[in-house]
């Protein structure tokens, strides 16, 4: 059953890739948006639009004029293209977006100020940083709002992202930190699982058994933190017998710089988001 706040609202996704699919699948599966109120447009790939239509029942069209109407008629326009495509895409939709629509962006690094400049309008903007776990309702999203966003629009944004996981409102400059932690974060965990599996196979386990054990271990550890409310460091100590196997393994991780590698990776992702943001800024000389 759809929550009333979004029941009659039209959402148009501009961009039809991994992140758009994660969100649209989440909101449709959770019943907070009806598939016949979800519109998806992209630049070229018609097969991709057909695939999304077949899988989720969303509305698509190959005609650019009809796509422009999808955007103009939407209550919420959700921007989900890569940073390199922002200039072209926002230039194309500029004439179609208007007040009092809500623009939601998931684009890493793209500031509210840059969006307002590209769209040349005083629009209501929710800048977000979700992650792909939104697909299964376990996303983690950071959100900042522009001054123009109304209370209803805030509630709609929270409803969307809380339907597909947890959502935290943060000051806009902290969205880069969110990007480093939870936007890119699933990839770090997959990378960790890959190494666990590889080591298990090197040790002689079958690939199938290795995967089962590694995935259950990560799932169990994350759930323990969530369900017991205990600090990760306290839970870690409970696994670590003095002079036992875990202590030996953790000492090896320290020796090889694991804690520093993880922290530096998070900081580098945040820094990269800032770099992408700077690349997407409109310089004063390019205006008008
Ligand atoms: N993937 C992730 O884990 C996360 C991604 N993000 C952000 O989400 C955004 C999208 O990432 P992701 O989904 O991975 O990217 P994808 O490459 O999977 O998808 C990008 C989509 O944008 C479309 N597109 C490109 N140019 C235009 C245009 N001019 N007009 C309309 N659509 C266009 C592409 O369509 P076509 O094929 O026709 O070119 C494609 O469907 C990025 O900005 C990223 O920073 C945020 C959090 C997590
Ligand atoms: O890798 C990226 O740039 C995007 C943003 C966060 C996750 N994926």
TrEMBL record:
It comes from Marinicrinis lubricantis. The lineage of its organism: Bacteria, Bacillati, Bacillota, Bacilli, Bacillales. This is Pyrroline-5-carboxylate reductase. Residues 172-276 form the Pyrroline-5-carboxylate reductase dimerisation domain. The keyword Cytoplasm applies. PANTHER family: PYRROLINE-5-CARBOXYLATE REDUCTASE, PYRROLINE-5-CARBOXYLATE REDUCTASE 1. Keywords: Amino-acid biosynthesis, Cytoplasm, NADP, Oxidoreductase, Proline biosynthesis. InterPro entries: 6-PGluconate_DH-like_C_sf (IPR008927), NAD(P)-bd_dom_sf (IPR036291), P5C_Rdtase_cat_N (IPR028939), P5CR-like_CS (IPR053790), P5CR_dimer (IPR029036), Pyrroline-COOH_reductase (IPR000304). Gene3D superfamilies: NAD(P)-binding Rossmann-like Domain (3.40.50.720), ProC C-terminal domain-like (1.10.3730.10).
């Amino acid at each position: 059953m759809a929550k009333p706040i979004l029941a009659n609202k039209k959402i148009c996704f501009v961009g039809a890739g991994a992140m758009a699919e994660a969100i649209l699948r989440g909101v449709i599966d959770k019943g907070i948006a009806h598939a016949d109120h979800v519109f998806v447009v992209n630049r070229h790939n018609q097969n991709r639009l057909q695939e999304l239509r077949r899988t989720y029942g969303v509305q698509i069209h190959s005609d650019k004029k009809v796509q422009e109407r999808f955007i103009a008629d939407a209550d919420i326009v959700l921007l989900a293209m890569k940073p390199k495509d922002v200039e072209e895409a926002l230039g194309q939709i500029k004439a179609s977006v208007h007040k009092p629509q809500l623009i939601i962006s998931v684009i890493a690094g793209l500031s509210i100020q840059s969006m307002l400049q590209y769209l040349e309008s005083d629009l209501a903007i929710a800048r977000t940083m979700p992650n792909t776990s939104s697909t299964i309702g376990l996303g983690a999203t950071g959100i900042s709002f522009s001054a123009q966003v109304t209370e209803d629009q805030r509630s709609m944004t929270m409803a969307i992202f809380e339907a597909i996981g947890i959502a935290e409102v943060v000051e806009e400059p902290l969205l880069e930190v969110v990007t480093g932690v939870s936007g890119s974060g699933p990839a770090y965990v997959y990378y960790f699982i890959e190494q666990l599996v590889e080591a298990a196979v090197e040790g002689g386990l079958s690939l199938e058994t290795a995967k089962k054990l590694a995935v259950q271990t990560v799932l169990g550890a994350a759930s323990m933190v969530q369900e017991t409310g205990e600090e990760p460091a306290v839970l870690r100590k409970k696994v670590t017998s003095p002079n036992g196997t875990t202590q030996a393994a953790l000492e090896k991780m320290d020796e090889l710089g694991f804690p520093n590698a993880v922290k530096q990776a998070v900081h580098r992702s945040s820094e990269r988001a800032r770099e992408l943001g700077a690349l997407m800024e409109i310089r004063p000389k390019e205006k008008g």
